[in-house]
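Memo to structure team: turn this sequence into structure tokens by end of day. - J.P.
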Amino acid sequence: MPSAKHSRQAETAPASYEQAVAELEQIVQAMETGQLSLDDTLAAYKRGNLLLNYCRGKLQAVEQQVQVLDSAQQLQPLPAQIEAQTDGD
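Reply from structure team:
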């Protein structure tokens, strides 16, 4: 049976996007080793799912905020070619 610590951790939102990504990387590494018990694997999967949804939500929110002014002073979504250039940063 999973511990209370695993239950609380699975429900706790990360402090930041960067923290969520770092924790996801740790979870993936731990799961790839194959050293986790079945209960710990399930808890890690649940936590990873929460973190993934958190990251997706943050990215969607940022994408909606990334806008540029066109020549008519209307807010428009950032052009795809500029988005592609910023993906590498």
